[in-house]
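I hope you will forgive my troubling you with a question about protein structure. I set the record out below, with my sincere thanks for your time.
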Amino acid sequence: MPTVEESTRPRLTGARLGPSFDAVTPLPSPRPPAAPAVRIAHVTKRYGAGPVVLDDVSLDIAPGEFVCLLGASGCGKSTLLNLVAGLEPVTTGAIETPADGAAVMFQEAALMPWLTARRNVELALRLRGASRGERRTEAEHLLATVNLTEAADRRPHELSGGMRQRVALARALAQDRSVLLMDEPFAALDAITRDLLHEELERVWRATGRTIVFVTHNVREAARLGERVILLSSRPGRISGEWRVAQTSGRRIESPEVGALASEITAELRKEISRNAS
């Protein structure tokens, strides 16, 4: 005769070992993909009656993504960055960015020569409306973020080119915007300083979660930094190639994987330059 425990134990029939279908708790619906941090939709740019600079460019950039825009000189890279920054109007198409816009860092540091490094950063904080005490504390924090604590009281002429660019980066971060646009910020630097700043920028990007759009004509730089590399054709600028990098941590300019990607991109870039020259 079955015991009480045996008589109350659930019986399993057939091959079904789980609860009945009606008892299954429904799984939550998958989350919809996050809206792009930057959306460029069918953008064309022409200056007056001149030739078309950018032609029907469409690109979505995800929050926190590091995208490099690459192409030959004159292909419209900087123009596209200026359109995203709102510095110039599009001719046709649309660009969506966060409500507070984007911070911009240019090739030239453009620091105020009569202000110290800290005061240059504080200037951006002042424009944000921060109080005097808040400005000093936050500026010192941002200079520490770019490893320039010891240079806070130096003026631009007392800093090396790489240090001035770090101050400019700290000033751009002081704007506290989720999107950072960078227009060939390391182009004028020597190779060793540029490599060091690549490491600094990557560290800051991972620490802050900023969305970065980085314009360069240096193929290896794009292969070193970008999660995604977008190649623009020569005028009119169109997206002619795209590469995604699955593993971005641990890369160096001399890494074999960076060299392989740079070679592949260079081959496509040469095709674009030859096509434009013919």
The mean pLDDT is 86. Residues 16 and 267 are 58 Å apart (CA to CA). The chain has two domains: 35-102+179-278, 109-176.
